[in-house]
Design goal:
single chain, mainly alpha, 12 helices, 411 residues
């Protein structure tokens, strides 16, 4: 799954983490000094531009240059150290997706910044008639329109790029497995695993991977915003004063939800994997029956379908209580920010604009922390696919298959 697309996967991902941490350290330690020495940053701090113009300001342009140079150095090293036919897509493609995701998150930050003056303007207009003019109001809407136009354009490009990236990954897996087909063909359902599981793995990774990168980037961008906004929230219900209240509550609430769902959904990956096995056994007998009149007899098919039915019923039962817990948590999550802000709102300590900024930033951080909560059903599916493709990896590595791979489902 990985060696087909990435050069020396274990070493590659380890070096990527180390390189990223080093770049982040340099950026926050001396990034401004380097940018100023290169003439890419002003020597005197300049207030950020409003709206979308801030995304092409000099500090942002300096980050774009820094990111591009860092990626180029990493790509050049791996291209020299361990040449791989898919290096361009696996390194440059991955980096471009990360950059676009970062850019879209910054667009969301720009929208969150816009919330403050816009909703304060509405509050002023409603409480003091005649004080806000139509040009002022339309000017705020025009600012949002500019941000939204950039967001729509970049998001469309992002989806197009990610789709091509994922299909390239599937192509790499397909080519790798086909090159070793003589050793893999004896595994039960091998043809399905190459054709269907590689397709499902790539499409599932498209959603999960993109959302994971988006969640990480959102945390990086919005945590400082939420920390700043926490100064307006000094008390929490029942608890009282808590340092950095909004960040603390978002983190604890998300950890609680993730842990809770992981516990009640612990059986699902194994059941999903078993489901693929019994379905493959049933489908395989039907395929044999197309060419051999002695195969796929009613009694045989009936016994195989019983295994399919029993596993589905177990899956349905486990999803029943899992979904009860998941939807209960998510519905409570809809009103949770208002519960947190209740003492501050009732005391009149924030304006409408500040409240909307807090709600939006809090929601972004909370949803990022809740990545596992929102993606858990998809993760379960991905784990079952991963288990099936791992049989290929075990065979090629001369390792023993897992115990469930050895079991044969018969009538």
């Amino acid at each position: 799954m990985f060696i087909s697309f990435f050069p020396k996967p274990k070493l590659f991902f380890g070096s990527a983490v180390i390189w990223t941490l080093a770049l982040i350290t340099v950026w926050y330690a001396i990034g401004d000094q380097i940018g100023a020495q290169l003439g890419l940053l002003p020597t005197v701090a300049v207030p950020p531009d409003a709206g979308v113009l801030n995304l092409v300001s000099r500090p942002f342009l300096w980050f774009y240059v820094y990111f591009a140079a860092s990626v180029a150095a990493f790509w050049a090293f791996w291209n020299f150290y361990a040449p791989h036919p898919w290096t361009t897509w696996s390194i440059l493609g991955s980096s471009l997706i990360i950059f676009i995701t970062y850019f879209l998150v910054q667009v969301s930050v720009a929208v969150n910044t816009w919330y403050g003056p816009f909703y304060d303007l509405i509050q002023t207009a409603l409480s003091k008639p005649g004080e806000v003019t139509l040009p002022q109001f339309y000017g705020q809407l025009a600012t949002f329109a500019g941000i939204a136009l950039v967001a729509v354009t970049v998001r469309v490009v992002s989806r197009f790029l990610v789709s091509h990236y994922i299909f390239r990954w599937r192509t790499a897996m397909n080519d790798y497995y086909m090159a070793n087909w003589a050793r893999l063909r004896s595994i039960e359902g091998a043809s399905q695993r190459v054709q269907e599981d590689t397709m499902r793995f790539s499409t599932t990774m498209e959603g999960l991977g993109a959302n994971l990168i988006d969640s990480v980037m959102t945390l990086i961008a919005f945590l400082p915003v939420l920390l700043k906004l926490s100064s307006n929230v000094t008390e929490l219900p029942l608890v009282g004063h808590v340092p950095y209240a909004l960040v603390t509550v978002a983190l604890l609430w998300s950890i609680m939800g993730t842990t809770f769902l992981a516990i009640i959904g612990i059986k699902l990956p194994g059941l999903e994997f078993r489901n693929q096995r019994v379905e493959a056994a049933y489908r395989k007998e039907l395929v044999y029956g197309e060419d051999d009149a002695d195969r796929a007899q009613p009694q045989t098919l009936s016994g195989l379908f019983v295994a399919v039915r029993q596993n589905y019923f177990r899956l349905y039962f486990n999803y029943l209580y899992f979904n009860v817990g998941r939807y209960l948590y998510l519905q409570t999550d809809n009103i949770f920010p208002y519960i947190v802000l209740a003492p501050t709102i009732v005391a009149g300590k924030i304006t409408l604009g500040a409240m909307n900024q807090i709600l939006n930033a809090f929601g972004e951080v909370r949803s990022s922390f809740q990545y596992l909560v929102n993606a858990w059903p998809t993760i379960v599916e991905l784990l079952s696919i991963y288990k099936r493709l791992r049989a290929f990896e075990a065979t090629l590595g001369n390792k023993e298959l897992s115990s469930i791979e050895v079991v044969r489902f018969t009538a």
